């Protein structure tokens, strides 16, 4: 799986003034109760700058647990076919834990393949079938937890339904 950093052009706070063919002036209006900040000329054109107001430092690891025993049982039955790509139903989950982590989604994904999840994020209790979210504020990535050394990236998990 490839982990792409979102660009400023995708952000709702991104504004440009001037002609796009010439040098347009770029602004970020994501700072509350302040006037929009102008991008310096040296700022990258596509990468999100370090001073982005949406960026969380450090990144946050959220665990979505099962809402009730029936949801857990249904997910257990669906999980019996190990070859199946996981597709958890967002309505069956609710936010359970949130801890800060210094890892990006790519670092987290590669490190789980090499070492146990409890060594990567100490004190994090995750059960099979739960969903782990690594959020840097720009784009959250979701992973389906199978075991300590096995997670699968999720593409269609909707956290707004998981309440």
What is the radius of gyration?
Answer: 19 Å
The number of domains is 2
Helix proportion range: 10-25%
Please state roughly what percent of the residues sit in beta strands, choosing from under 5%, 5-15%, 15-25%, 25-35%, 35-45% or over 45%: 25-35%
Mean pLDDT: 85
Main sheet: strand order:
5-4-6-7-8
Coarse shape: elongated
Could you give the distance between the termini? 27 Å
| Strand elements, count | 8
Classify the secondary structure makeup into a structural class: alpha+beta
What's the order of the H and E elements?
Answer: EEEEHEHHEEE
Which runs of at least 5 residues are low in confidence (pLDDT < 50)?
A: none
What's the main sheet like? Answer: 5 strands, antiparallel
Number of helices: 3
Plain-language structure description:
The chain is of the alpha+beta class and 163 residues long. The protein has 2 domains: 1-53, no CATH class; 60-154, no CATH class. 15% of the residues lie in helices and 26% in strands. It is built from 3 helices and 8 strands, in the order E-E-E-E-H-E-H-H-E-E-E. The strands form 2 sheets. The chain has a 5-stranded antiparallel beta sheet. Strands 1-2-3 form a 3-stranded antiparallel beta sheet, with no helix packed on it. The longest helix is centred in the middle third of the chain and has 11 residues, at 69-79. 21% of the residues are buried. The model has no long low-confidence stretch (mean pLDDT 85).
């Amino acid at each position: 799986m490839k982990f792409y950093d979102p660009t400023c052009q995708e952000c709702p706070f991104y504004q440009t003034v001037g002609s796009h063919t010439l040098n347009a002036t770029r602004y970020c209006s994501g700072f509350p109760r302040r006037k929009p900040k102008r991008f310096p000329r040296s700022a990258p054109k596509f990468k999100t700058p370090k001073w982005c107001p949406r960026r969380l430092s450090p990144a946050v690891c959220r665990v979505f647990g099962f809402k009730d025993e029936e949801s857990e049982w249904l997910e257990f039955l669906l999980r019996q076919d190990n070859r199946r790509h996981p597709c958890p139903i967002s309505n069956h989950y609710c936010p359970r834990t949130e801890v800060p982590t210094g890892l990006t989604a790519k670092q987290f994904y590669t490190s789980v393949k090499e070492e146990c999840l409890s060594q990567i994020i100490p004190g994090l209790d995750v059960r099979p079938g739960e969903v782990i979210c690594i959020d840097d504020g720009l784009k959250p990535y979701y992973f389906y937890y199978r075991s300590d050394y096995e997670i699968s990236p999720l593409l269609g998990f909707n956290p707004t339904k998981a309440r």
